[in-house]
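input
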Amino acid sequence: MSGRLLPTRAVAKVWGRDSLPEPFAAPEGERIGEIWFEPPPELPEILAKYLFTSEKLSVQVHPDDAQAPPGARGKEECWLVLDAEPGATLAIGFERPLSAEAIRAAALDGSIERLLAWHPVRAGDFFYLPAGTVHAIGPGLSLVEIQQNSNVTYRLYDYGRPRDLHLDEAVAVARGAPYDAARYRRSTGEGAATLVDGPHFRLDRVAGAPGAAAAARYRGPLLVMPLDGAVAVGDRQVAAGQCALAGGLGDVDFAACRLALLTQPVRAAGAGG
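output
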């Protein structure tokens, strides 16, 4: 296996956009909120996608692997901000500690929106969200999201939109605490950066070919997402806005790429795909 492009899925959302940044385009009359790259059978544990927002997303939380329903994964995720309109924010964690009863009451009366910590953001900001972190994405943002491949989402509050809430499940797994920004948030600057190194996946941003330290961490199949420029995986060109599976770093030519993301699951020794 040298590599192949992953199929994409454009997902319409009420909070999405009818005008997307290049190279993406929304179909006439649709508001696209997410561009998914279908996880390949070789790497089923992780999902990569772009998010584009014009309104706030619901206040939600995800379980960890132990708390997830039988047969499902938990969901830890991370966000890399690609573009942010002035005043754009991400809600992550609470301003102060809250009990489970207080979280439930705030979700029911809508005050949970005011109790969240809304973090001002700009391009290059990065956030890792452990399972159990209550969060919401604000409007005016373009993000890359890398996550455990799980669709288990428990919605606490949705601004009156006619969608189901999952209060019992959400309150059972939610951490009623401030976000540990010193540990999980960083400003990445413009060059190469190691963003995540476990426990569920690793993620690096590279500027051109990866350095020795990054190369040493990536063994076996990985996903490559060019952000600026293009890479070649075997004989296939992969442009910004696309995502490819590569059999290994040695199969990827970064000569025409100024910036790209690399990601792969962290697996126990001897674990296969």
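quick obs: Residues 17 and 31 are 4 Å apart (CA to CA).
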